[in-house]
């Protein structure tokens, strides 16, 4: 186990440990790096914990010709660039945290003397393991065993730890989705008990954790098994749970169907958010016909409007929110796979082929989460994407920019500058897409002339 860590630890990190130790300090590699190596997952950032204060780290590193940046010194963190071609390594003084009155920011950062005390303030046992090339693992909370067993367990008393910092609640479910680990029952209970404290966390941080959760390979189980936490962030999910669709097309309730759609898509952020919210309007539009069959008339429109509200509430970037809304709005629009229909759809998606590709993939995942005998629609959406590739390869016109005429040509026919120019160009584009007129200058000018006279 430690062999793997020895192999994975870059020479630059070992050098920082050596430099600090030569100056009389202790230093360990901690946190995500140790966890990810033990999990055999790709590693990213490296964190080092030390008993040196940041000023001492700075002085020591400077003497060893390393650059440092005082980005997080208020929390005892100094960023060190061990060599010009290396990645930044964060070096943090052993610390514990004082009382948390706002569920997120400790009122005081208290430095401590031992690595064990430092590990005690970390969130989960798997994140509270330190490694040193000569001393091996320092693992006072059994993190390595929990990694082996696939368990996310709070360090110390769960409810207390989640009460100190409610972001840990979302980190727990996000790790569960990323790693496929189970939440230790007491840890889940503690998280559920403190869930109201999530309301004190900045929405941007909530959104970031939710996005990572959604892109995890095990997102289905987390969406199904942690309703108290998920529904605190997204109360719109509550009425989806257990909502029987009363339809031969469906074998799952709305929430379980949704969870499958999410997990069946590639881990692309936009696609996964759209998948999560594509049917969020179903509870509000549910009706039962005289034959006892469930209907959700206009659910795509309602879901799209709700998506826009949710994205706004979570302060997601405007373009991202807009795109998610568009995907949700059209998720249930199915047209025969031919060039004309592809171009019409492209027009509704603002002439953006990548967005249409994403829509096709959403529709495939949606179709596959229906009853097995009703998944043929997936083929239609796959064919639609193939057709899109053909339209692109043939450079067929589907935006105003693709037209063989421009606004100047329209004005040269005597149309005054203004909105009418755009309207006429749009009429021309529709005619080209509907294959009524070829995309040729003379034909289009003639069309504009007749339109303008009409
Ligand atoms: P990833 O980088 O994949 O998000 P990570 O565990 O490395 O996972 P970081 O945010 O980089 O997460 O944090 C580094 C370490 O700091 C963690 O491994 C953990 O020990 C500790 N940590 C991070 N956030 C918290 C928190 N909210 N409460 C307690 N400890 C935390
Ligand atoms: Mg990290």
Q: What is this entry, summarized?
A:
This protein is of the alpha+beta class.
How would you describe what is shown here?
By secondary structure, this protein is α+β, with helices and mostly antiparallel strands. Helices cover about 50% and strands about 10% of the residues. It contains 23 helices and 13 strands. The chain has helices at about 1-10, 10-20, 30-40, 55-65, 115-120, 145-150, 160-165, 165-180, 185-195, 205-215, 220-225, 225-235, 255-265, 270-275, 280-285, 300-315, 320-330, 340-350, 355-370, 375-395, 405-410, 420-435, 440-454, and strands spanning about 25-30, 45-50, 65-70, 75-80, 90-95, 95, 110, 130, 135-140, 150, 180-185, 285-290, 295. A 7-stranded mixed sheet has the order 3-4-5-2-1-8-9. Strand 8 (about 130) and strand 9 (about 135-140) form a beta hairpin. The longest helix is centred in the last third of the chain and has 17 residues, at about 375-395. The chain is globular.
Which hetero ligands occur in this complex?
A: adenosine-5'-triphosphate, magnesium ion
In whole angstroms, the N-to-C terminal distance is: 80 Å
The neighbouring-strand order within the major sheet is: 3-4-5-2-1-8-9
H/I helix tally: 23
Can you count the beta strands? 13
Overall shape: it is: globular
Q: Which stretches of 5+ consecutive residues score pLDDT under 50?
A: none
Biggest beta sheet attributes: 7 strands, mixed
The overall average pLDDT, rounded, is 95
Oligomerization category of the chains in this entry: single chain
Radius of gyration: 28 Å
Could you say which structural class the secondary elements and strand pairing correspond to? alpha+beta
Amount of helix: 40-55%
